[in-house]
Amino acid sequence: MEKSDPSHIKKPANKPMTNKVTCKKTNPATIKKRDPEMGRKTTNPAAAFKENKGAGKTAAPSKTGIPAKPGIQDKPKIPAKPRMPVKSSIPVKPAIPLKGAKNVYDPKSREIKKACAASKKWESSILWQTKILRRISKGFVLKITLKCLISAAVAVSIVLACIFGLSQRSKETALITSSQDISIVAEQNIAHITPGDPSSKDTLYVTTDYAMENVSLRYCWYKGDVEIKGAEGNSLSNSYFRKGDLIKAAITPFNDKTEGKPITSQTVKIKNSPPVIRSVDIEPKTIYTNTDIRARVDAKDHDLDSVRFQYRWIKNGSVIYAQESESLPGYEFIKGDAIQIEATPFDGEGYGKPVRSDFFIVNNSPPEIISRPPSLLDHNGAFVYQVIAKDIDNDRITFSIPPNIKIKDMKIDPSRGLLTWEIPDDIKPGDYRIEILARDNDGGEASQWFNLNIRFNQPNRKSE
What we know:
single chain; Immunoglobulin-like; 17% helix; 28% strand
């Protein structure tokens, strides 16, 4: 047996070594895991299937010339436990049977393995998508809720701002809290003095359309350019001015913080005050026909001017005299007339209001006895007296002797007024009181009395 020379044996040519490393993508399904029960590395069912397929074959010679260890591939392979399917709320598509496959559930079928792997990938992707969608939906809902809350808050704030702005706007003209606002409002308002054409007897008032809250007003009155001392408030009494004075007022708004500009009113001139009649009367108050009457007037002039009067005498509603005379002659009226006087005052600048008196009725005038008794007896020794009376009102007159005069045989004719007394012989000397009455139809009467002295056949009369 010849020994071979090792030197003659052809050695393989030395190839240069390279640092090139090829990396292949690893399928997650083929990653080996350690089985805690068996204490060895296992693979998923697909990897186990590949390992079982090559079982029983001898190892192929190594390309590097190093012989493989005998018996490694001959060891029996323990199949790994199949993984439990992952429960998911998303339905998993069932496996589609392949054409030409005898049994779709045959674990040795490569198509079924590929389908199972694809199904698991699809299921895992669906699970991740579901989780992502849930997170996104939760975040979206939170964002939408937050935006809604922010929008609602903004809307409420806008509404409150509008309400507050309107309320503030409505109070602008009434509520003033700064000097600028007070000044602006003061410039836009004007004070007015009423009455606009005052007289010396009027009371002046100042008004303004300046309506405010929490703001006070200070009033100042001026006579010309001089402030009237003691005049406060929105009214001025007539005791502070006289005829011809120039009066104006100023209103100053103020509050506890500041004071605005004064609001000045117009200037008014005090005019003459006409005189005023207090009362009108007639004297005498009892009026008879042919009795002169006169007017009595009480008047007052606020400016202390002298007052004259114009009169109008009115009889039964008609004016009979219009003059400055204060008297009316009695022949201008008769019994039963209604007399009235109207007086108008005048102070040299203006007339006052005319005033009329009450009605005065002309009363009945009583008759008047105008005759006087005789001083001697007649030739028969009797006392004869013709009483003569007259009545201004032309009433009928009746004559009589009062009942208290009791003289025997003394008589008087009621219509003619002839008094006769036959003196008896047995009469006692002395003074005898004689009284005669004359009465008209309206109750007016007149009387005359006298004393008749009788002395011993020498009668003598004595009248008073």
